[in-house]
Design goal:
By secondary structure, the chain is mostly helical. The chain is built from 13 helices and no strands.
């Protein structure tokens, strides 16, 4: 459980960072691209789209040039395309919103080599932009600095659920969407 005082301090600190962030390069490179990225990749990362997922579509998403948000996904993510059937199976589980996220994230990432939490949660953000934030090294480091990262003792599935609850709460309290919040972490760490 996150300490309420730590959480309120984090919100205050992020609010003060937001004004500089909104006028900066990171914001201008990432935030305006959201709708284009969603238009291109939401159909691909839907239950129907997954059945037709090609290696090229997946690799395209991993590139910063196309996702306009995350760098380095193609380093390990490329390995997931060695077995496209397993990748489609993993994504089918990941995107099945009728199953608890604490169950499906670890199940999906265990099926295929190369799709860890950073790629899986990036796909979740694109598929469900109002519901899931991105858990990667950048967001985890920022949450730890702010002292609002969930307990290390939780399993990965429960840790993501708890982390995503923090993302949702921050998004609401900062009055920004989860895409923008994820870009804010880059600014926060560079500030």
């Amino acid at each position: 459980m996150i300490n309420q005082t730590d959480y309120l301090n984090a919100v205050s600190r992020l609010k003060s960072e937001f004004y500089e962030f909104k006028d900066g390069k990171i914001y201008n490179e990432i935030v305006p691209e959201q709708q284009l990225v969603l238009l291109k990749y939401q159909p691909i990362f839907s239950q129907n789209g997954i059945t037709k997922l090609t290696k090229e579509d997946y690799l395209s998403f991993l590139s910063f040039k196309n996702n306009c948000h995350w760098t380095g996904l193609e380093r390990k993510g490329r390995n997931a395309t060695h077995d496209m059937e397993s990748l489609r199976d993993a994504l089918t589980i990941l995107l099945n919103d009728s199953i608890s996220i604490s169950e499906r994230l670890p199940r999906a990432t265990a099926i295929v080599t190369g799709m860890g939490k950073a790629i899986a949660t990036s796909i979740l953000l694109v598929a469900y932009p109002q519901k899931y934030g991105v858990w990667n090294g950048t967001s985890e480091k920022a949450l730890k600095i702010l002292q609002i990262f969930p307990s290390e003792r939780l399993s990965d599935g429960l840790k993501y659920k708890a982390t995503n609850d923090v993302f949702q709460r921050l998004s609401s309290d900062l009055e920004i969407d989860l895409w923008t919040l994820d870009a804010l972490w880059w600014h926060f760490l560079k500030a």
